[in-house]
Each structure stands twice: as C-alpha cells, then as structure tokens.
C-alpha cells in the first residue's frame, strides 16, 4: 500500500478530486488530503475526510499539528504528492518559493515526486506568465498530467480542464509502482520526414507525430531511457525523453544508427519513400519551362526500419514497425513484417469511422507477430501506446 498526499487548491475542479480519492482507495492505496483556504470555498473538508478516511489538513497554524512540524512530516510520510487541481495561482507561488499556507509550505519543503494536474481558464493557461511557470516547474522535474481541451465551467472553450480521474490515476500508478522497463533503452521514430525539392519546396508524408510521441512518452514513464527521433511536428515533445529533430530520411537513419545499441525500437515515423535526385540549391523559377510543367526525378530513400532490423552487429532485441495501407491491410502488413525483418508490426487502418487517421487522436489498428493477430479496434493513440507497452513488458518478463 502506497501513501499519497493529495493537495487540493481552489478551483472549480476541486469537487472532481473526490472521485480521485475514491479511485486511489479502490486501488488499495492510502490518501491524506490537504486543502487550501480557497479550496474549502468550493468543497467541504468533511467530504474529503469521509472518503479518504483520514484527517484533512487545511491550516498551517494548527497548534496540534504544527507542534510536530506538520508541513514537513506530511510530505516525509508520503510516497507521492499529487496537486489536483492545481490553479495558476498555486503554480506561480511554487515557482517563486512562496509558502503562505500549509499547502504551499508542504510544496516548498517537499522531497517526494510531485504530480501536478492543472485546471484553469484557457486564457490563464495560455498566459505567458503561466507558460513560463510551467516550463520552470517541468525543469525542476515535476510531472504534469493534462490539462485537457474542452468546454470550461466559465463557458469558454480550450485547454485548461483538469484531466479525467482515470488519466490522473494512470500517472499516479506509473509513479508509485516500480518501473517495469527500468534499465532498458528505447528508440522511437515519429512524425514525417521532409525531402527538399529546392530551398522553399519539399515533398513529405502526412503525419502528426501523435502516435510516436505517445509511445515515447509512455516508454519513458515505464522506466525506459527513451530517445525520440522526430520529423517536423506541431505537438509538444514528451517530458523526460531525449529528442533529436531531423528533416530528411537520411538524417533520421543517421540519428537512429547513432542511437544504437538499444533494447527496444519502434518505427512509427511516416518516412518519405522517395527523395529528390536533382535537388536545386536555388528556388526553381516557374518560367523555366515553356510548357509550364515541371519534372522531379525521385529516388528511393533508405528503409530505416529494415536497415536497423537487419543490422547484425547492433540489432535491437525488439523491432516494431507500423504500416498504413489503403487496401489488403493485414495481408500486406504481414508480408511487410517479413520483408523488413521486424518482430512485430502494427497495421493502421487509413480510414476509421469515416475520418482519416491523420492528425486524429484515435487509431484503428491490428497488432501482428509471426504467431498472432489481434484487432485492437478503434482506440485512442494513447491506448495504442498502452497496449503496445504492455506487450513489451510481457515480452521482457517472459525473456527473463
Ligand atoms: O513500407 P512502409 O512505408 O509501409 O513501411 C512502414 C514502416 O517502415 C514504418 O514502421 C516506417 O516507420 C518504416 N519505414 C522506414 N523507412 C522508410 C520507410 C518506412 O523506417 N524509408
């Protein structure tokens, strides 16, 4: 049984922390709650005491408690501190080392891992002051979950909603349970590659990087030392992951080769199959050709997955590919797995529920090995990462 100290600051999402207490208790862990003064305007300490079955703390100057230096003891007794919801105000106080309440004093004196679930209005979340504060707290090693996008209590829409209880609990479980992939090294490719035609034009593949980034993020949470090699994307990089940015397939291949040896390699990037042979160092003029047309000669890029998989000297123990096809998905995925010598392949459906997979949070996939074919159905890209990582954990458990 692990001990969690839950600090609740004064936001409308404070009532949702009651469900978080239920979830922590349901999983068999112990939770003690600290409420800020503003939190007590939104929720009753009695509800927190009843659900946690522990005393609830609110006051820094509680004589009985402070005679035992309560704000120090509360963090020393815990395995993990969770700040949920975390308002813009308490985050700003943390950055500046302000300790004007029991909650902020615990946070300042804390020597335990801290998980933060922000909740605030979208303008507050996007305010440059908050952005700087989050950056500084992340640099100090604190772990964030959320916030989610959606409609807020104030009626505005955007990023700032406290994450769902299940998501917060998942992060708690990664932090309190022993990391199953500790000691393993992982390499993940993600996003598209871009192949220049001239200094301003390029050919590329459609890819948001969401799937590869979700996998890299989870591998790192599960303890693997993770290296993400990514083409240009518009999504944030996962925390605690080494990131190498590349543009072309050749650059991606070189970055992958330099990352070896690794135990786990996941190739989720949408690598451009071709590159331009006669790349121009100057912008190509439209008027160059009388017919107003233009020819580009393409040659094949190296296959990164195949090169790494067939690299006898430093082959990763586990090589996983992805493939997306518009027809005969499973059949061609299986033959690709053999052709590219990878151990597992995940076959992506191109269209799911009439929507394209690109830039979508959902993915419809099948998981294939030489013995197995599992259809995982239409699930979120985060769920695909979870299912894949649990296969990876099982693989290393069975190998041990
Ligand atoms: O052949 P196809 O592009 O469908 O193969 C997809 C798989 O191969 C993906 O895992 C992708 O990351 C990888 N790949 C690669 N290098 C290429 C082309 C694809 O690593 N040049």
Quick rundown:
The protein is of the alpha/beta class and 400 residues long. The chain has helices at 17-26, 39-42, 45-52, 63-66, 70-77, 88-96, 102-109, 122-126, 128-139, 165-176, 210-221, 249-259, 304-309, 329-339, 381-399, and strands at 3-8, 30-35, 56-57, 80-86, 114-118, 143-144, 148-151, 157-161, 185-190, 194-196, 202-204, 225-230, 242-245, 264-267, 274-276, 298-300, 318-325, 344-349, 351-352, 355-356, 362-368, 373-380.
Cα(first) to Cα(last) distance is 26 Å
CATH architecture of the largest domain: 3-Layer(aba) Sandwich
Contiguous low-pLDDT stretches (5 residues minimum) are none
Strand order of the largest sheet: 13-12-9-14-17-18-21-22
CATH superfamily of the largest domain: CoaB-like
**Remind me, CATH topology of the largest domain?**
Rossmann fold
Structural class call reads: alpha/beta
Strand content: 25-35%
Secondary structure elements and their pairing?
Blueprint: E1 3-8, H1 17-26, E2 30-35, H2 39-42, H3 45-52, E3 56-57, H4 63-66, H5 70-77, E4 80-86, H6 88-96, H7 102-109, E5 114-118, H8 122-126, H9 128-139, E6 143-144, E7 148-151, E8 157-161, H10 165-176, E9 185-190, E10 194-196, E11 202-204, H11 210-221, E12 225-230, E13 242-245, H12 249-259, E14 264-267, E15 274-276, E16 298-300, H13 304-309, E17 318-325, H14 329-339, E18 344-349, E19 351-352, E20 355-356, E21 362-368, E22 373-380, H15 381-399
Parallel strand pairs: 1-2, 1-4, 2-3, 4-5, 5-6, 9-12, 9-14, 12-13, 14-17, 17-18
Antiparallel strand pairs: 7-8, 10-11, 15-16, 18-21, 19-20, 21-22
Helix pairs in contact: 1-3, 1-10, 5-7, 6-9, 11-15
């Amino acid at each position: 049984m692990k001990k969690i100290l839950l600090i609740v600051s004064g936001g409308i999402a404070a009532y949702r922390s009651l469900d978080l207490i239920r979830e922590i208790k349901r999983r068999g862990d112990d939770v003690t709650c600290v409420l800020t003064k503003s939190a007590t305007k939104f929720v009753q300490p009695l509800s927190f005491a009843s659900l946690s079955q522990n005393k609830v703390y609110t006051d820094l100057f509680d004589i009985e408690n402070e005679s035992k230096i309560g704000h120090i003891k509360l963090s020393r007794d815990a395995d993990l501190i969770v700040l949920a919801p975390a308002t813009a105000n308490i985050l700003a106080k943390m950055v500046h080392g302000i300790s004007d309440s029991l909650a902020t004093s615990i946070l300042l004196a804390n020597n335990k891992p801290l998980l933060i679930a922000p909740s605030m209005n979208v303008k507050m979340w996007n305010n440059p002051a908050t952005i700087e504060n989050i950056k500084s707290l992340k640099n100090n090693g604190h772990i964030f979950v959320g916030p989610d996008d959606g409609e807020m209590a104030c009626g505005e829409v955007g990023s700032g909603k406290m994450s769902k209880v299940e998501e917060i609990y998942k992060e708690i479980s990664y932090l309190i349970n022993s990391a199953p992939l500790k000691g393993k090294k992982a390499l993940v490719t993600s996003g598209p590659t871009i192949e220049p035609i001239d200094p301003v034009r390029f050919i590329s593949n459609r890819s948001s990087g969401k799937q590869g980034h979700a996998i890299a993020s989870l591998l790192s949470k599960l303890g693997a030392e993770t290296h993400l090699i990514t083409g240009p994307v518009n999504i944030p990089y996962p925390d605690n992951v080494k990131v190498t940015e590349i543009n072309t397939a050749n650059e991606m291949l070189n970055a992958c080769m330099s990352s070896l040896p690794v135990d786990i390699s996941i190739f989720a990037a949408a690598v451009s199959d071709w590159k331009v042979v006669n790349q121009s160092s100057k912008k190509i003029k439209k008027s160059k050709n009388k017919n107003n047309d233009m020819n580009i000669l393409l040659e094949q890029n190296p296959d990164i997955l195949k090169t790494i998989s067939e690299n006898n000297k430093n082959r990763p123990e586990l090589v996983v590919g992805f493939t997306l096809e518009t027809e005969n998905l499973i059949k061609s995925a299986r033959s690709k797995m053999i052709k590219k010598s990878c151990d597992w392949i995940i076959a992506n459906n191109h269209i799911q529920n009439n929507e394209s997979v690109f830039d979508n949070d959902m993915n419809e996939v099948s998981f294939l090995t030489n013995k197995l074919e599992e259809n995982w159905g239409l699930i979120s890209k985060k769920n695909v990462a979870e299912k894949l990582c649990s296969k990876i954990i099982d693989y290393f458990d069975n190998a041990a």
